[in-house]
Design goal:
Length: about 375
């Protein structure tokens, strides 16, 4: 009798993984090709607003991928990721404000160079993510959700209180950041920069979750007790994932500040965190590519419904509920993850990985 009968055959398992990889590769490359052709389609159809709309979608897709890293692979339900989105945008706006209009900031004249300002903004997001993650990860479940929400609202009210930087009204960005060799004031050039950042960050996250680090992170998601018994310390893995996710979300905020040329405290509000979470759930949690498509669906519905009625959220809410009830993997999660083979779903025999119950050994007492 085959001692491995309780486990899916290697050939079938490999085929399933290969098919899943093909699906994700096809989905990713096709999506990247379509996004790369957006300026061409915009010029051909004489619809310049299409570039602005798709730039917004790409930026939200970047934030959604970053949130999915901790939500889908780390099972960390963060309801405060908007704080990193807002912080990244505000750091760029404040440094630019002091460089162009106001005086020096702590003795520094400020800068408009992207290679100077953007790393500073990302560093601030990483430090905030490290502090929030270190405190929040000492809890779990609802407590973790509430701590991240509380920190997000704290950042929101701090931004509201900064009257020198506009307070409730926000702060206008006098000019976009200067990136050597690229004219960010050109909508097409800026769109391609955002698309390149999204593609690079998505590839990085996919490499990360498929590495040994990512496997440990997913093991902690499935069974923390079992992973700990194998010698895994949960805190370093989850904290580093939280910080990486904060950096990605902060990068989305940086791009948004340059896109809108305006930052407001609403960027850090809990409603923005809710939007990002809805996008991830809509596209498919734990797929990385699904949330990008989810951003397109969410923003597309928002544009269509808001043009029809100002109470568009009353329609958007039931749609999201129906999507969650109809499929736990969102609109694209089932297709991207693939359907497990019947052999993979078959439970192993009670005797372990042998073909039947373990036979007693007469040489051992009590067997």
């Amino acid at each position: 009798m085959n001692r491995m009968s309780g486990i899916a055959a290697p050939g079938r398992g490999a085929t399933g993984l290969f098919t899943q990889w093909n699906r994700r590769a096809l989905f990713g490359w096709l999506g990247l090709l379509l996004l790369a052709l957006v300026p061409v389609a915009s010029h051909a159809t004489d619809t310049p607003y299409l570039i602005n709309a798709m730039t917004r979608f790409v930026i939200y897709g970047l934030a959604a991928v970053s949130l999915d890293l901790v939500l889908g692979y780390g099972a960390l339900i963060s309801f405060g990721h908007a704080m990193f989105f807002g912080l990244g945008g505000y750091v760029v706006a404040i440094v630019t404000f002091h460089a162009v209009e106001a005086g020096p900031l702590f003795g520094w004249a400020g800068s408009t160079q992207a290679l100077v300002v953007w790393p500073i903004a990302l560093l601030c997001c990483a430090l905030l993510g490290l502090a929030v993650g270190y405190l929040a990860l000492r809890t779990s479940g609802v407590q973790f959700i509430m701590i991240t929400l509380a920190f997000s609202q704290m950042v929101y009210f701090i931004l509201v209180s900064l009257q020198v930087y506009g307070g409730d009204d926000g702060l206008m960005l006098s000019q976009r950041s200067v990136l050597p060799g690229v004219d960010l004031t050109d909508p097409v050039s800026f769109y391609y920069v955002c698309l390149a950042v999204l593609a690079a960050w998505t590839v990085f996250c996919m490499k990360l979750v498929n590495s040994r680090y990512g496997m440990v992170l997913q093991a902690l998601r499935q069974s923390e007790r079992r992973a700990v018994n194998l010698g895994v310390a949960p805190m370093p893995y989850r904290l580093s994932a939280f910080v990486i996710s904060a950096v990605g979300t902060g990068m989305a905020g940086i791009l948004w500040a340059n896109y809108a040329e305006l930052v407001t405290p609403d960027m850090a509000a809990w409603t923005k965190s809710g939007e990002l979470m809805a996008i991830v759930i809509l596209g498919g949690v734990g797929t990385l590519l699904g949330p990008i498509a989810g951003a397109a669906v969410f923003l597309g519905l928002e544009q269509a419904l808001s043009a029809w009625t100002e109470h568009w959220m009353f329609i958007m809410g039931p749609i999201l509920v129906l999507v969650v009830l109809a499929g736990k993997q969102g609109l694209f999660g089932h297709w991207l993850n693939g359907k497990p083979s019947p052999d993979a779903l078959r439970a192993p025999p009670r005797g372990g990985c042998t073909g039947g119950p373990a036979k007693p050994d007469p040489r051992r007492p009590g067997s």
